[in-house]
Amino acid sequence: MNQINSSIKAVQEVEVKNIFFVACGGSLAALSIGDYFIDREISVPSKAYTSNEFIHSNPKSLGKNSIVILRSHSGTTPETVEAAKFAREKGAVTIAISMDTESPLCQAAEYTVHYNYKDGSDVIDGDNGVFYTLVFSILNVLDPNEKYERVLNQLNNLEELFESNRKLTYDRAFKFGEENKREEIIYTMGSGAYYHEAYSFTSCLLMEMLWINSNAIHTGEYFHGPFEITDFDVPFLIIKGEGPTRPLDERAIKFAEKFSNKVEVVDITQLDYSGIDEDLKEYFGPALAGVVLRQYADGLAEHTGHPLSVRRYMWKMDY
Amino acid sequence: MNQINSSIKAVQEVEVKNIFFVACGGSLAALSIGDYFIDREISVPSKAYTSNEFIHSNPKSLGKNSIVILRSHSGTTPETVEAAKFAREKGAVTIAISMDTESPLCQAAEYTVHYNYKDGSDVIDGDNGVFYTLVFSILNVLDPNEKYERVLNQLNNLEELFESNRKLTYDRAFKFGEENKREEIIYTMGSGAYYHEAYSFTSCLLMEMLWINSNAIHTGEYFHGPFEITDFDVPFLIIKGEGPTRPLDERAIKFAEKFSNKVEVVDITQLDYSGIDEDLKEYFGPALAGVVLRQYADGLAEHTGHPLSVRRYMWKMDY
Of A190, B7, B161, B274, which is most buried by a Cβ count within 10 Å? Predict the structure, then answer.
C-alpha cells in the first residue's frame, strides 16, 4: 500500500496528459482492462501497447506529462524492461507492477508496485487486488468520485468472491473440458473489458498452454468477417459480459447459437457478487471472469491430459 | 477534393483534443492505419474502435473537441451509422468516408468524403488515395511538415505502383494459393500499421471469403503465448514491414521459420516504390501491402475453387 501511495503521489504531482499501459501477452491483457476503465470513466486519453511496438513506434505524445504503467509477472520480460527505460528517458512517470521488486523491470521503472503470488496471502494483495487498487486510486485522484472509493473498499470481498465463483462454475467448466477435448480449434469472444479476458484465454491458455488453435474475436467485429467461419461443428466460448457492452455479446451469442452446436456461454451476470454494490458490478466482473475462465482451462487440461505447465519453446531456449 | 477541403476546414476550426477512428471489420482495419500514423507523427491522442463498442463503452473524452472519422464501403453498416449519430450528438466533428454519398452514413455525418470504386478512375480517387489524402492533410494542418506535402504529391504514383506491385508478386501469391489450398488454418502476423493489414486479411479474406480459420497475431505478441502453437505443419503468412517496427517482424520470422516448414514472408521493402522518396516509404508500404495481400487471397480462391464472392450468411439474412 505504501508503494501504491508513492505512485499515486507521483501521479498527483504531474499534469497528466495521457496514460500508457505497456506489457506483453497476458500482462498486456490485464493492463488493457485498466485502459478500458480509464477510457470510459475520465477524459484523460489512454492507450495500451505491446512493449516492443511501444518502443519502436515511439508515440509522439509520450513525454513528461505521461504516466506509463508496465507489468510483468516475473519482472524479467526483456521488451517490457526496455520499454520502462525508454519511457523513463522520455521523462514519463513510470510505474512497474510485478511479483518481484528486485526484478529488472522494477529496477528500470521509477515506481514499483508489488503483488504477492501463491504465498497464501489474501487476494487483495495478489495481482488482481493490487492492480485494481492502483487503477481506481488513479481514477480517484484524476477525477474524485465516491464510487471509486467504494470500489477500493469492496475489493476486500475479492478473496471470498474468487472462492465462491470457482465453486459456482466448477462443474460447467470441467464439463466444457470433456465436451471439447478433441477440438483442434476453439474460438473465443467478448467485448469491452472482457475482450481482453478472451484475448488472454486465447493467447495464454488455449494457444500457449494447451496448444489449441484459437482467435479472440470482438463480439462487435464478429459480424464483419469472422462470422462466416461459423458452422455446426465450430466451437465458440463467448463471454456475456456484465457492463455496457453486453448487448454486443448477446447479438453474437444469438447468431452463433443458431448455426453452431458448440457454443459455450460464460454469463458474468450469473456470478456471485456478494458484498458488491449493484452499480459497481461492471468493475468487478472482469476480475471474476478471469478466475472463472482459468477453470475452463483446467477442465481442458484434465480431459486432454495436457497439463497447463507444459511448454515446447518457453523456458527451453532463447528466442 | 472539395469534400476533403471542407473536412479539413472543419478540423482547422476546432481546438482538436482527440481523434477517433470508428468502423467495423475491413473498414476499421483501414482506419486503424490512420490511427497508427496519427499516434506516431503528432501528439494529439487518437484511438480506433469497432462501431458498437464505441457507442456502448461511450468514451468520456468524446465531445466538441473531438474529430470522429467513420468509414463504411457501402455507407450502410448500421452500427457505423449509429456511431456517426452518436458522435454528432456529442458535438464532435464527424467525417464519413464511403463510396456512396447518398448513403445513410454520409447523411448521418456532418462531413462526407467520397471515393470512387471500380469505375475505371485513378487510384488516387479510390479508397486508398482518398483516405491517405484525408489523413495526411489532417496531419499537415495539425502539425505542418513539408514531409506530409510530399506524401500528398506522391500519392499520384499509387496507380502505377499498385499495378507494378501486383505484377511483381503475382507468381508468388498464386504459388502460395497452390501450396496452401488444403490448409484448414493459416495464421497471419504483422506489426505497426501492417498489423491492421494482417487483421484485415485474417477477418475479411481468410475467414469471411475463404472460410479458412485464422488469427492475426501481432509479431510483438507472438512470443508471449501464441508461439507455442508453432509446429512443422502450421502455416504462417507474415508481413515483414517497411517502417520502424520491422525488427519485431524479423524476430518472429526467424523463430517461425526455425520450427515451421510453412512460413510465407511478404517483405514490403522488396516492393516497387518508384517515385516515392526514401523517407516516405513507410507511409506508402501499408497501402501497397493491401494490394499485394489481396492477390494472395486470389491465389487461394483459384486453387481452392472457392470464389471470394461466396457467403453463407452475409447478404442472405438479417443478423
Answer: A190
